[in-house]
Amino acid sequence: MATVRTDDPTRGRWPLAGAAVLLQLALGAVYSWSVFSKALQADDSAFDLSKSTAALPFSFTIGMIFLGTYLGGRIQDRRGPRVVALTGGVVYALGILLAGAASDDSQLWLLILGYGVVAGFGLGLAYIVPIAMLQKWFPDRRGLITGIAVGGFGFGAVLTSPVAQRLVDHYSRVPTRSFIWLGLAYLAMAMIGASQFRDPPAGYAVPGWEPKATGRVVETRRDYAQTEALRTPQWYLLTAILCLNVTAGIGLISVIASASKTAGYGTGAAATLTGVMGLFNGGGRIFWGWVSGLTGRMAAFLLMLGLQGVCLLILPHAGAAVFAVLAAVIYLCYGGGFGTMPATAGDFFGLRNAGAIYGLMIVAWSIGGVVGPQLVARLADGDSYTTAFTAIGVIALAAMALPLVTRAPHAAEAVPAPAAAE
After folding, report:
1. Fold held by 16-194
2. Is the terminal CB of the chain with fewer CB neighbours within 10 Å at N or C?
3. 110 with 101: CB under 8 angstroms?
4. pTM reported for the whole predicted model
C-alpha cells in the first residue's frame, strides 16, 4: 500500500497548470474559424464558398470532438496524460497543416478532412487530458483549477483571431495558406505544454486537506468506473445540465454579429463586440469554476441557467449598451458550464476515472452545439430574433429544475461494473 509523503508534494503543481493553459490556447484557436469562413466566402478568393458550405469544416470539427474526448479520457486513465496529450496535440496540428494544403474549391474535401475530421479528433483527444490531470493535482481547488484549464481554451480564439486576420489578408487569394503558419505554431505550443504533463505520484495528498463530506461541495469518497457512473441517474442529469447550458449560450453565440445589429450596432462595431465577448467566454470558465467552490456546484448551475434565461428574454428588447451587458452575462455563463462541470463530475464520481467519465459527457457539447444554433435559425424571423431568444430563454429557465433535483450519488447507488470493464 502506498504511503503518503511527509514533505509537501504540491510543490511544482502550478507550472503544470501553466503548461495546460498553453496547450488549451492552441486547441481553443479552432474557434477563430469565423475569420477563415469570411475569407473563404470572398469573391476574390480561390474558394468563393457559400455561407453554408464555408461552415462545413467547423461543423465537422465540433462533431469529431466527442469521439476524441471519449477515447482520450479512457486512454489517459490507463496510460497517463503525457502520451495522450502529445498525440492529440500533434494530430490536431497536422490536421491544421493538412487544411493549409487546400488550394481552391475543388479541394474543399481536403479542408474538411484536415480542419474538420483530423484536427477535430486531435482536439478532443488532447482537450480532456489537462482537465482530468489537474483535478488530481488540485483536489483542494478543483473548481478553480478546471476553470483555469478550460479558460485557456476559451481565450484561444481571442488571441488567435487578430493574427489569423493578418494572415488571411496577406493570403487573400488562397486564405488556407494561413493554416501552415498557424499549424506550426500550434504544434510547438502543444508539444511544449503536453511534454510537462504527468499524474501525481502514488500516495499523493495535499497536506491538511480532506474531502468534504458535508457543506456546499459534497465529494465522493470512492472512485466510480465509467460503467458504474453510467448506471447512476446522476451521470445523465449532469450531462443534461451541461447540454442545456450549452444550448442556451451557443444559441446567441451563433448569431451575435447579426443580432447585435438589431440593437443598433454597425458592421464594424458588431465585429468588435463579437471579439470582446470571447473574453467573457474564457473568463467565465475561471470565474464560475471558482464560484462553484463557494456556493456549491448545483447552486452555480442554477445561477448560470437562471441568468441566461432572464438575459435571453430581455435581449431582443435591449438597446446597444444593455445588449452588450446582457450578452456578456450569457457568454460568462456559457463558458462557466465548461469550467464547472469537470469539477462536478469529479465530486460525484471520483478522480481515478475522471477522464473517461467526463470525456463521455462531452456528448452534451456536440448535442447542444447543434440544437442551439438550429433552434435560433428556425425561429428567427428575418432580422428579428425575438421569438428565438424568448424560446431559448424559457428553456433555460425550465432547465433550472435539474440542478434542484441533482444530488451526489451515494456509494450504494452505483451498480458494480463487471471486472472486465475496468
Report:
1. Growth Hormone; Chain: A; (1.20.1250)
2. N
3. yes
4. 0.77
